[in-house]
Design brief:
This protein is an alpha+beta fold. 27% of the residues lie in helices and 31% in strands. The longest helix is centred in the C-terminal third of the chain and has 18 residues, at 556-573. One of its GO terms (molecular function) is translation elongation factor activity.
């Protein structure tokens, strides 16, 4: 265990994470030569779509050995649309390595990932890549990082010889650097590290400089607390700083016993109690599945981190609170697309189990029934709100399409599949246009399923603004037993957000209790159908107060029909109106585009509710706007921000649509009904 390290390369797209992984594997002797994105020969980007697009879409697991230490390395995608792949890596590693593109400086994605890593208690390290890019301002980049993350961001090494190499600043007291001073950087590191231990502070004050080899314990404590965020400089292209980064990983980053423990909880909600997992191979097994994928050769694959105990091939494990164990028949260590069989995995190891259909994302595996209620505190995933209505091109393929979509959704916690009853559409929700495009490409290229897509219909609602009564007698005679039912009811508006309420105030058996479920069914059918534009009616109370029945002819269908028509009549008299969904937006964009953005939002009936200045010349805007005005908004945002803007949205509330929208929607519904 002490000879195991794990880290995830995270950060913005185009920061060079995949090529840095190649450089580390090559330098560690795992590759004869680094792979190429252009040739599609990298270890981590093995998916056909990744090769075609030449950037990462999935997190990939690799490993190598350096100085007798096994290192598990995760390469994660950098686009905001792929957060469902990158964020779970934080559950698998002890260190989050945020890779910064020296040519681009600090970007919003790096800010976001640093915050998420801090929230999960991961040790953090900043790796400034592409230090040899033309015109880079490395002192400026370091100043950006320190301005954003504080004085705890200190360089472990500095570029030297025109960025052809780097010089260590922790173990070395002197050296030649392209900027700053090795001596000053060394002093700052030692002072920052000793601050977490009073005994070392006293020694430092009495003795002056301390030997860095004595500072391992306070260094690990400083990393756990976030009191030190090391900065390393590297060029994956030339190899400058790669050997030094390997040494940092092995000599300075935490082993499984030194990192902050995972946030296991027993129980749910406010009653959940924290549970300490201990990186001890002799204890019962605790492992967490942070990634699920459908492999074309081995089927369903659950990729996991062992937190406690020793996971062995052929042992019996339980999934969550399941009572039936499964046998670990196939245990692997992953190297990109390769599955290397192993006999056991220790605390700190990342491994994979194959051919267990019950495995799912976020599952906790264990071998003790006492651990059945354990789970990890949930990650803060962004809400998938970019929807696409999807249907099979070939009639009869609906069930197959649903099953394929479900498999793809199971692999990505930021995809959501829903059948929207209000619009009768199957809608898949993702984080953006690229996210959904990748899903469609997988359906077509990997599963040979042709589909049709369109923007989903906006889920309007209807309500009423006044009270009204309605009554209807349904009477049908056809020679034999007839149908008879009469319903008297009134409708009244409720406060926004209260939904639908049905109240039975019938006295004296005017409508026998046995028919009241049929009456309620008819009411809900009328509310679901709407009266303005065919959308469900909400925030309404329907009170049935009287009616009539016949001892022979009254039937459920008669009262359902009478209640439906009585409700429809009452709703028409209660001043109905159309409610449109209002969404809250959070947008990140270059500050220079702020004026164009706010003007565009105003033209879409949007309202800016707040702005914040972010580091690196970026701004965040919070706003409210009608959902109907934001269909396909990413394309417009790209035009306003030169392709750099991103946004997320979530349903805020419903409010009355403007009169012109109400009239237009009512006319469209009327034409549809007549057609």
């Amino acid at each position: 265990m002490h000879a195991i390290r794990s880290l995830a390369l995270m950060g913005p797209a185009a920061a060079g994470k995949t090529l840095l992984a190649e450089a580390l594997l090559h330098r560690a002797g795992m590759l004869g030569a680094p792979g190429s994105l252009e040739r599609g020969s990298t270890v981590s980007d093995f998916d056909p779509l990744e090769k075609r697009l030449q950037h990462s879409l999935n997190s990939a697991v690799m490993h190598f050995a350096h100085d007798g230490t096994r290192v598990h390395l995760l390469d994660t995608p950098g686009t905001p649309d792929a957060l469902g792949q990158s964020l779970p890596a934080l559950e698998a590693v002890d260190t989050a390595a945020i890779v910064i593109n020296a040519a681009a400086g600090l970007e919003p994605m790096a800010l976001r990932l640093m915050a998420q890593a801090a929230e999960r208690g991961r040790d953090r390290i900043l790796i400034v890549n592409k230090i040899d890019a033309p015109g880079v301002d490395l002192p400026g980049v370091l100043a950006q990082l320190q301005a954003a993350f504080g004085r705890e961001c200190l360089p472990l090494n500095l570029p030297s010889a025109g960025a052809a190499r780097v010089v260590d600043c922790f173990f070395q007291r002197q050296g030649s650097a392209d900027f700053s001073s090795v001596a000053d950087a060394h002093r700052a590191l030692v002072e920052q590290v000793v601050e977490v231990d009073a005994a070392f502070v006293e020694r430092y004050l009495n003795e002056g400089d301390l030997d860095a080899s004595e500072l391992h314990a306070p260094l690990e404590e400083a990393l756990r607390q976030g009191h030190l965020i090391p900065v390393c400089f590297v060029s994956a292209r030339t190899g400058a700083g790669v050997k030094e980064l390997l040494d940092v990983i092995v000599r300075l980053l935490p082993d499984p016993t030194e990192s902050n423990p995972p946030a296991f909880l027993r129980g749910e909600g406010e009653e959940a109690q924290p549970v300490q997992a201990t990186a001890d191979p002799a204890l019962p097994v605790l492992a967490h599945v942070f990634k699920v994928l459908q492999d074309p050769y081995v089927g369903k694959l659950g990729v996991l981190r062992v937190h406690q105990g020793t996971l062995k091939r052929d042992m019996q494990l339980l999934i969550g609170d399941a009572r039936k164990p499964f046998k670990v028949g196939h245990l692997f260590r992953l190297q990109g697309k390769e599955h290397l069989p192993i006999d056991e995995a220790l605390p700190g190891d990342i491994a994979a189990i194959a051919k267990v259909d019950a495995l799912h994302f976020d599952a906790v595996l264990h071998d003790s029934p006492d651990d059945g209620r354990l789970h990890l505190a949930p990650l803060s995933f962004p809400t998938p709100v970019h929807g696409l209505a999807i249907s099979p091109q070939r009639h009869g393929d609906e069930q197959r399409l649903w099953e394929l979509l479900q498999k793809l959704v199971d692999e990505d916690p930021c995809l959501r599949l829903e059948h929207v009853a209000a619009t009768h559409e199957t809608v898949v929700f993702g984080l953006g246009e690229l996210h959904l495009k990748v899903l469609l490409d997988r359906l077509r290229e990997q599963h040979h399923c042709e589909v049709q897509t369109q923007l989903p219909k906006v889920a309007y609602r209807e309500t009423i603004t006044g009270q009204a009564v309605g009554q209807y007698r349904h009477k049908k005679q056809s020679g034999g037993a007839g149908q008879f039912g009469e319903v008297h009811l009134r409708v009244a508006p409720l406060a926004r957000g209260e939904g639908q309420r049905f109240v039975d105030e019938v006295k004296g058996g005017a409508i026998p209790g046995s028919f009241m479920p049929a009456v309620e069914k008819g009411v809900h059918e009328a509310l679901a159908a709407g009266v303005v534009a065919g959308f469900p009616v909400v925030d309404v109370q329907v009170t049935v107060y009287d009616g009539k029945h016949h001892s022979v002819d009254s039937k459920d269908i008669a009262f359902t029909t009478a209640a439906r028509k009585a409700t429809w009549l009452a709703l028409q008299e209660a001043r109905p109106l159309l409610l449109e969904p209002i969404v809250s937006l959070e947008l990140q964009l270059p500050t220079g585009s702020l004026g164009d953005l706010t003007g565009d939002l105003a033209s879409r009936r949007g309202q800016v509710t707040g702005t914040d200045q972010l580091a690196g010349g970026w701004s965040e805007v919070r706003a409210l706007a009608p959902a109907a005005e934001l269909q396909g908004y990413q394309s417009r945002l790209n035009a306003l921000t030169g392709g750099q803007g991103r946004y997320t949205l979530a349903l805020s509330h419903h409010e009355a649509a403007p009169p012109n929208v109400q009239l237009q929607m009512a006319k469209e519904w009327q034409r549809h009904d007549e057609g």
